Amino acid sequence: MRLILIGPPGAGKGTQADQIVQRYGIPHISTGDMLRAAIKRSTKLGRQAESYMDRGELVPDNLVIAMVMERIAQADCGIGFLLDGFPRTLAQAKALDAALDEARMSLEAVVLLEVPDEAIVERITGRRLDPVTGKIYHIKFNPPPADAAARVIQRSDDSEQTCRARLARYHAETAAVVPHYEAQGLLRRIDGSRRPPDVTRQIIDALEG
Ligand code: AP5
Fold first, then answer.
1. Is the dihedral of CA 113, 5, 18, 63 positive or negative?
2. Atom of ligand 1 nearest to the CA of 194
3. Do residues 139 and 128 make contact, with C-beta atoms less than 8 angstroms apart?
4. What is the mean pLDDT of residues 61-86?
5. Is the pTM here over 0.85, yes or no?
6. 140-178 pLDDT, tens per residue?
7. Does 46 sit in the ligand 1 pocket, CB within 6 Å?
8. DSSP string of 154-183?
9. Model confidence pLDDT, tens digit, residues 103-137
10. With respect to CATH, is domain 2-116+165-208 assigned 3.30.70.260?
11. What φ, ψ does residue 187 adopt, rounded to 5°?
């Protein structure tokens, strides 16, 4: 099963991806996580990506496309994958189409999580991550348990100012990916403003119903 999960920053892609990959037993490929790991290891890619991410801008297409193509060619992706946060531009979507065509593979669905802009800033600025388990929490909507509360951290690009820049990039560039997949009949629109388990249920119904 080859799936794509797109939506604005803070729409709940990471939260929902955890549920989807568990259900279908496919690898979770998050370009944001891969880029943050590259920054932590201080690789050439990480050093190139860091300033863009800190400003809330998109990392250049050539860097991200090469990173994803290398990842989906790995053996564990033979059974499928869930792409989270990719493609984010029309050029990325077309590069993915070409790679899948060449490999005679196709996408099952593109899940779009829709959340109004007003809700995004509160979700992003309240997000906390557990560096030990990788779990995603929110100070109001999903507070960390007592044993994790002291160690949770905030992402460096989760300030209100950077969040607004990311949202602007989403509307300026990533929104163009939506009609691309709608025209292919692959798009599944999901109301991401509901409670996380309700969002998961909608996604499963859209994929299996
Ligand atoms: P990335 O890491 O992909 O960030 P993003 O798309 O901005 O998405 P987030 O990770 O912020 O949010 P999410 O949708 O996963 O939400 P979450 O589940 O955490 O990218 C970061 C940067 O990397 C980009 O800005 C760019 O620079 C670069 N990059 C990445 N991919 C790229 C690409 N393809 N091309 C170019 N550059 C790229 O939830 C958010 C919060 O809300 C959490 O606290 C959660 O607990 C809470 N929450 C979740 N669901 C709900 C709900 N239903 N109700 C209430 N609260 C909820």
1. negative
2. 53
3. yes
4. 97
5. yes
6. 999 999 999 999 999 999 999 999 999 999 999 999 999
7. no
8. --TT-SHHHHHHHHHHHHHTGGGHHHHHHH
9. 999 999 999 999 999 999 999 999 999 999 999 99
10. no
11. -75, 135
